[in-house]
Design brief:
It contains 15 helices and 10 strands. The protein has about 400 residues and is α/β, with parallel strands linked by helices. The structure holds S-adenosylmethionine.
């Protein structure tokens, strides 16, 4: 079993309360049979994660609570600790506790005792930091053996598979995994709510503006007749282009989003100008759609796994004619709020992907957007960095 490095600050502890009657243990199977669909639905809504991941997290949380009870029934004096790399499990536990009545009944029914969640008080964290400064080596050793005991206990009580899930390299219980899962949503259903939330796209006077300033800039100076917008169903860009007489082929993985667009296009009398296609860029062949003067893929590339992005760029390039312009915007790697450096895209990464396709950047930089963005994982921030690029095909021989 490979141990993950723990953060130095102690995590949350679970204490139990069984003054009224002695605790009893239920079997793990019994505890795992407990279901709470409202909790799952709330968690999905709040964290924007796939339902399957919320379900998985709840299973692990029930195992954790069962383990806390087992620890208590066995008469252990020390409470179990939720380590920082178990942050996603902790989030699920918080959500469960919010349904306070159900949580209390669950604890009582299955364990005969209340399992409390006890955050580490700031005083204790400060003491911990002082000790770290005074005796880092000693503290690390202590933490390491404490963690080792915990890993062995989990392995002993819950088995190797669970231990791998909790402590293995995938870190499925960690907060960054939770956020990654939220941001890398590729299923159409997920985007549906966000897309319909944004309606109406037009202002009171009935005029529609491009949401992406780079697109407005390009169409103001270039002669654009035909455009391809990938990941189009969440912004007004395609409607605005159509309203200016530019033909738009929009590709988006969300069927509901594309349908919403169709309705909006009808309402704005620009339907003949927009062809909306439901397709996942990872499986689509964009070259079949023909040449476009303008291709835009805004705030979508980072949704894909890093290994999938170059292929997506290849497809954008394949849909380009000799003088096409490609516009890309995406979350930049400059922000660490996702706690995952591979999530955002760097200037170098984007530049290199286009260079491989023989495209050169006309603009390639990152800039700060002050307003909070509606992207999952980004909302808690006042602003974020966006990478933006305008690319053109290299001239022959260039
Ligand atoms: C964050 S929104 C960005 C929308 C808009 N272009 C913008 O600039 O904000 C991502 C859009 O990409 C779509 N999308 C996500 N994954 C996709 C994929 N693999 N293929 C095609 N579209 C995808 C979503 O349905 C959604 O409409």
């Amino acid at each position: 079993m490979q141990l993950v490095e723990t953060a130095a600050v102690r995590g949350q502890t679970a204490t139990t309360d069984h003054q009224k009657h002695p605790p009893h243990g239920s079997t793990l199977e019994e505890v795992l049979s407990y279901q709470h669909p409202d909790l799952i639905a709330r968690f999905v809504e709040e964290h924007h994660v796939p339902e399957s991941y919320a379900q998985e997290l709840f299973v692990e949380t029930k195992k954790w609570l069962w383990l806390c009870n087992a620890n208590s029934v066995e008469g252990a004096r020390a409470p179990l600790i939720i380590y920082p790399f178990m942050g996603a499990l902790d989030e699920m536990w918080h959500s469960f506790i919010l349904f306070s009545k159900d949580y209390a009944t669950f604890c009582d029914d299955f364990f005969g005792e209340f399992i409390h969640h006890s955050p580490t008080p700031p005083r204790e964290k400060a003491q911990h930091r002082d000790r770290l400064a005074a005796d880092e080596e000693g503290l690390r050793e202590e933490t390491h053996s404490q963690l080792l005991r915990f890993v062995n206990y989990v392995e002993h009580k819950l088995g190797q598979d669970t231990a791998t899930r909790w402590f293995g390299p995938e870190e499925r219980l960690s907060s960054p995994f939770l956020r990654r899962s939220a941001v890398r949503q590729n299923n159409g259903e997920f985007w549906e709510d966000r897309i319909t939330e944004r309606l109406p796209y037009w202002n009171d006077s009935g005029s529609i503006q491009c949401d992406t300033p780079l697109i407005s800039e390009v169409i103001a100076r270039e002669h654009v007749r035909r455009s391809l917008i990938v990941g189009f169903a969440n912004f007004a860009d395609s409607l605005a282009l159509a309203a200016q007489g530019i033909k738009v082929v929009g590709v988006d993985v969300s069927a509901a989003g594309v349908e919403t667009y169709r309705r909006a296009a009808h309402a704005l009398s620009v339907a003949p100008k927009i062809l909306g296609i439901v397709s996942d860029i990872r499986h689509a062949d964009l070259s079949e759609l023909g040449d476009f003067d303008l291709i835009a893929c805004t705030m979508m590339l980072h949704v894909l796994e890093p290994a999938e992005r170059a292929d997506a760029v290849r497809k954008l390039a394949a849909a380009a004619g000799e003088s096409s312009i490609i516009i890309v915007t995406a979350l930049s790697d400059k922000d660490d709020y996702l706690n995952d450096p591979s999530q955002g895209i760097s200037v170098e990464e984007l530049g290199a992907m286009f260079e491989r396709e023989h495209f050169r950047p006309e603009i390639l930089d990152t800039h700060y957007v002050a307003a909070p963005h509606s992207h999952p994982g980004g909302a808690q921030h006042a602003g974020h960095h966006v990478i933006r690029g305008i690319f053109r095909k290299n001239q022959k021989g260039g």
